[in-house]
Amino acid sequence: MKTSLRQLITVLALGAAVLPVVSIAQEAPPAEKRGPGGPGGPGGGRGRMTPELQTERLSEALALTAEQKTKITAIHKEQAAAMAAIPQAERREKMPEMMKATREKIRATLTPEQMKKFDEMPPMGGGRGGPGGPGGKGGEKKQP
Q1: Which pLDDT belongs to residue 24?
Q2: Cα-based distances in Å from 30 to 44, 49, 57, 100, 126
Q3: Nearest partner of 105 among 58, 142, 53, judged by Cα
Q4: d(Cα 99, Cα 44) in Å, to the nearest integer?
Q5: Is 124 domain-assigned?
Q6: 89 assigned to some structural domain
Q7: What average pLDDT score do residues 131-138 get?
Q8: Which terminus in the chain has less CB density within 10 A, N or C?
Q9: What are phi and psi of 67, to 5 degrees?
Q10: How deeply is 44 buried, as exposed, middle or buried, from its count of CB atoms within 10 A (0-12, 13-18, 19+)?
């Protein structure tokens, strides 16, 4: 009888120890919703998002129509292709003007209400050391 009671207590203790690990794993966003850096990585999980994911994030914030999504995805694809064509050494220098041009193109597809929200949003990609950068808000972990 003592052996079964010990086994039962051991199994319950192991189950209690594993439960927090399982619940934390369920809270993590799916890999396709994170950038390659993951939470706390380069860009706080925002690094190199696909044009579709960039558009989806905007859609969540601005309630885009299907037509707007199509146009904005094309804008993001155009920016990605233009960025890929620039030599790596020149990207940092040319990035701000490209990002500004992209924001203006996106802004032109929005309604006045959406423009107001869009203008209040931080630029995609943040910046090194800024929110979402190394040590920024994007890398914070939830406290249990």
Answers
A1: 57
A2: 14, 14, 14, 30, 21
A3: 58
A4: 19
A5: no
A6: yes
A7: 45
A8: N
A9: -65, -45
A10: buried
What are φ and ψ of residue 56, in 5° steps?
-65, -40
CA distances from 42 to 26, 68, 139, 143 (A): 23, 29, 9, 21
At residue 7, the 3 state secondary structure works out as helix
Q: What is the pTM of this model?
A: 0.54
Looking at this protein, which amino acid is placed at residue 74? A
CB-based contacts of 13, cutoff 8 Å, min separation 6? none
Domains in the chain, number? 1
Of 60, 57, 28, 29, whose CA–CA distance to 126 is shortest? 57
> Does 81 map to a domain?
yes
Residue 7: inside a domain: no
Q: How far apart are CA 83 and CA 105, in angstroms?
A: 16
Sign of CA dihedral 109, 95, 117, 57: positive
Give the residue numbers spanning the domain of 58: 49-118
